[in-house]
Write a sequence for this structure.
């Protein structure tokens, strides 16, 4: 294609001296193509995120959006759909002028994802953008479709030449892939193989939107910007680590997806193992993509792959039964609309994992997640070992309990520390008290949505907050035996009442000294 | 309307006392916080930033209105020292407000506003009045929107950052000199600088493509059009370019309604022209034009929904596009100023120094035979 011929030269490119001190770093001129552009994720998250980036002046100098989906509509109708989605789901009320500026650069290509004409039409549209801009534009292909389409789209991008970067023209090509990245180790490997047969790993951005949350990034700041915790952060001082991602809601209208996925695939394989990595990883030398991801992979590789016979000892699953939530009677999972009455999909999963390395050997990492639990909370509780000797009488008091450091990710992001304190009075009686810090009290800025950060990073070519191929496979290596063992075990599953703390069976995972924190 | 009342969006607790003392005010603050937190456990005090505003009492309502517009960027404790020269006694009002009820399971943040009305007789001991009323260990931002430079000097030991607006000083050179002097003692947040942020960001973005970066080192001309009272903002923008691109700045002189001059880049001179844009209704910049030795011409100008960009390449090809972004308005700029008190921009001071060099008084930088110095011209224009 003819784009500003002769501009690229062999001379080394100087750094951009104007970026120093800027909070918002420049994003290269980009055409973003969303496959699955009329879907729920695009409407609820991606389009509002793009609008908010436009509002803040954070989009590239030249930015074009192309929606691709089966729905047979034209550019204007798709722009109207974009506008509706932004008005409905944006975190801020739209500024009409900014909205218009964004929508002016939106196009739509209708067709099936396996139809070659879609890709030739896409080529034409992308070339037109470059002609208008007078320069090569980076291309980012966002796969916001059902996972079964990922390999099809990637291969069509390859065969149509759209996956090819042109370094001479400074045109980078990137592919952003939504979760789930496979539903088993075998699938993940096969998907990686097919994606990497077309794209370089450096072009692939696998989304785990948890990584885009400020709260998750704060975990690294908490650990590596504060000297007081790191000396304690090892097996000598830490008794156990407990990671909880509890939801008070049921599956809603997502039966079709959820009954195929279950709690382990939905949250533990990706989000919760990421949290574990952030807690357990060694400090990277630099906060750079490969260094951070290398450290996370080391943690995952240190977690022994369970054998099928070990699974019952380290993993528990259950389903919510009828119960109460928010003062209302609610149905059990098997009574939810769209769920097969004999479903053996777990709505609760708990694991006990170990990280077999010098720092963590012998420290259990408990992970649990579930729907229809007592309340919504995501937290990481680090329990320290008890004091070696107690000089105080415990009679008449709650006694001295081990210190517990709790990182809460939601709903109120913060850090709390349980300490022993003297109860006022003449006796030396001790009870635990809570020292609490809430992030919300200490900052003026509003956190951006995870997708705003992730889309920007992908366009800028910063993969730090994305999952690398070996990371995904390492996650699956841990979870795959559990999935297989559970598939071989007939139902029905243990039940826990909706609105409760979860199944009693989860207690069997705990070592004698440990207990689950109240949800 | 007293400033404290005007600032309260929703009053949760109020205390006031005539002829009071700093100790009594501080005790009242503590009691009110305990009371509010006791009644509503989910209400917790924000602990981000102290802000001390020294204002003329007769204009305190206007300041209250400006602060009300800053959205979420309120200081967590605002101490308004409302000055009325002949006032004999110290009156105070404490208001604790929250931005509405929390979501279930969430928290609601409380902000404290303390308004102390004082007079000439209190100025000698101002530090001892303000000191007990700021939250220890929080950064403190000092703002004196009605001048009172001597008061700023008095209160500076309490503050880590000072909020100024260089476009509000009648003479740009004096404003920049004052900002330089303040920078030696505290971090300066200059609203005039913040008004140029979108321009700096868009310029950095526009020149970010690798094939365009070299053009930055070939700039031969810069023209900035600005609001009649925003010369300082235009100077800061050119100062930023000069400091980032290592130009040797030269003095600007008046040329009709404009300021003109030349600075030296590594391989060529850069003609600088600052023009007044009488049509611009709000403080800040109207447009920026850059010309390069290769023949490229770039113009950024205010437009609907963002900055409008126009580029003419050396081969004569012309293109126009919009760089989307919402206007923050003056309230947004003030809010950004408060937020910036918690950050540090390493490029401001070099830009400020370069800007000041362009308007330094005669005898220091002015080349021999140059025309009337820019500062005098602007003094005449202003009057």
């Amino acid at each position: 294609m003819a784009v500003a011929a002769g501009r690229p030269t062999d001379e080394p490119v100087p750094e951009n001296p104007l970026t120093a001190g800027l909070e918002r770093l420049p994003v290269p001129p980009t055409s973003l193509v969303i496959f699955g552009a009329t879907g729920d994720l695009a409407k609820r998250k991606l389009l509002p995120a793009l609008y908010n980036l436009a509002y803040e002046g954070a989009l590239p100098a030249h930015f074009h959006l192309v929606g691709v989906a089966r729905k047979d509509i034209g550019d204007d109708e798709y722009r109207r759909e974009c506008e509706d989605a932004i008005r409905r789901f944006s975190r801020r009320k739209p500024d009409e002028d900014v909205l218009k500026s964004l929508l002016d650069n939106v196009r739509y290509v209708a067709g099936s994802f396996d139809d070659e004409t879609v890709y030739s039409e896409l080529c034409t549209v992308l070339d037109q953008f470059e002609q208008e801009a007078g320069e090569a534009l980076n291309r980012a292909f966002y796969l916001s479709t059902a996972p079964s389409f990922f390999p099809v789209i990637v291969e069509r991008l390859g065969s149509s030449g759209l996956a090819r970067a042109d370094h001479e023209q400074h045109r980078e090509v990137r592919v952003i892939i939504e979760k789930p990245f496979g539903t088993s180790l075998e699938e993940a490997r096969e998907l990686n193989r097919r994606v990497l047969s077309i794209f370089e790993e450096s072009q692939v951005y696998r989304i785990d939107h948890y990584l885009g949350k400020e709260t998750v990034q704060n975990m690294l700041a908490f650990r590596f910007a504060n000297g007081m915790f790191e000396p304690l952060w090892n097996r000598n001082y830490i008794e156990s680590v407990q990671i909880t991602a509890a939801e008070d809601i049921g599956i809603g209208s997502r039966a079709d997806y959820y009954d195929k996925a279950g709690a382990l695939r939905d949250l533990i394989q990706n989000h919760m193992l990421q949290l574990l990595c952030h807690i357990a990883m060694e400090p990277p030398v630099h906060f750079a993509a490969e260094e951070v991801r290398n450290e996370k992979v080391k943690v995952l590789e240190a977690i022994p792959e369970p054998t099928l016979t070990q699974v019952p000892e380290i993993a528990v699953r259950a389903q919510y039964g009828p119960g109460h939530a928010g003062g209302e009677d609610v149905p059990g999972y098997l009574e939810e609309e769209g769920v097969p009455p004999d479903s053996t999909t777990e709505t609760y999963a708990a694991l006990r994992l170990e990280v077999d390395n010098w720092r963590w050997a012998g420290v259990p990492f408990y992970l649990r997640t579930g729907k229809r639990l007592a309340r919504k909370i995501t937290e990481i509780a680090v329990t320290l070992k008890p004091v070696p000797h107690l000089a105080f009488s415990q009679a008449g008091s709650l006694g001295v309990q081990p210190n517990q450091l709790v990182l809460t990710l939601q709903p109120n992001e913060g850090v709390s520390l349980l300490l022993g304190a003297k109860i006022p009075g003449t006796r030396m009686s001790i009870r635990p008290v809570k020292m609490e810090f809430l992030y919300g009290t200490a900052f003026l800025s509003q956190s951006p949505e995870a997708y705003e950060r992730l889309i920007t990073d992908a366009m800028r070519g910063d993969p730090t907050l994305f999952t690398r191929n070996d990371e995904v496979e390492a996650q699956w290596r841990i979870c795959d035996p559990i999935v297989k063992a559970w598939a071989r075990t007939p139902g029905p599953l243990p039940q826990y009442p909706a609105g409760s703390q979860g199944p009693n069976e989860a207690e069997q995972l705990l070592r004698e000294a440990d207990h689950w924190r109240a949800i | 309307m007293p400033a404290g009342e005007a600032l309260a969006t929703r009053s949760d607790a109020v205390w006031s006392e005539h002829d009071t003392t700093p100790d009594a005010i501080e005790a009242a603050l503590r009691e009110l916080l305990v009371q509010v937190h006791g009644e509503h456990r989910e209400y917790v005090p924000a602990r981000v930033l102290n802000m001390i505003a020294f204002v003329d009492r007769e204009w305190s309502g206007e300041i209250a209105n400006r602060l009300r517009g800053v959205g979420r960027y309120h200081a967590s404790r605002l101490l308004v020292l409302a000055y009325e020269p002949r006032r004999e006694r110290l009156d105070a009002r404490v208001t604790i407000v929250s931005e509405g009820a929390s979501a279930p399971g969430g928290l609601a943040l409380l902000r404290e506003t303390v308004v102390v009305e004082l007079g000439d007789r209190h100025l000698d001991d101002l530090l001892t009045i303000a000191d007990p009323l700021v939250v220890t260990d929080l950064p403190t931002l000092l703002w004196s929107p009605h001048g009172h430079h001597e008061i700023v000097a008095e209160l500076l030991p309490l503050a880590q950052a000072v909020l100024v607006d260089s476009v509000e000083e009648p003479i740009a050179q004096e404003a920049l000199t004052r900002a330089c002097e303040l920078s030696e003692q505290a971090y300066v947040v200059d609203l005039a600088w913040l008004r140029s942020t979108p321009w700096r960001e868009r310029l950095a973005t526009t020149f970010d493509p690798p094939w365009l970066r070299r053009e930055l080192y070939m700039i031969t001309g810069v023209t900035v059009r600005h609001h009649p009272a925003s010369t300082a903002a235009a100077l800061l923008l050119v100062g930023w370019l000069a400091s980032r691109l290592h130009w040797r700045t030269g003095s600007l002189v008046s040329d009709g309604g404009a300021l003109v001059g030349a600075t030296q880049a590594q391989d060529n001179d850069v003609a600088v022209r600052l023009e007044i844009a009488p049509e611009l209704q709000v403080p800040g910049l109207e447009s920026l034009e850059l010309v390069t030795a290769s023949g490229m011409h770039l113009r950024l100008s205010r437009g609907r929904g963002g900055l409008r960009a126009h580029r003419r390449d050396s081969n004569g090809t012309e293109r126009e596009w919009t760089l989307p972004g919402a206007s923050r308005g003056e309230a947004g700029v003030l809010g950004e100023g408060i937020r910036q008190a918690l950050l540090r921009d390493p490029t401001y001071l070099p830009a400020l120094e370069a800007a000041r060099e362009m308007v330094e008084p005669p005898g220091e930088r002015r080349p021999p035979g140059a025309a009337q110095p820019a500062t005098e011209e602007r003094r005449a224009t202003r009057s």
Residues 1-9, 365-383 of chain B have pLDDT under 50 and may be disordered. Residues 22-39 of chain B form the longest helix (18 residues).
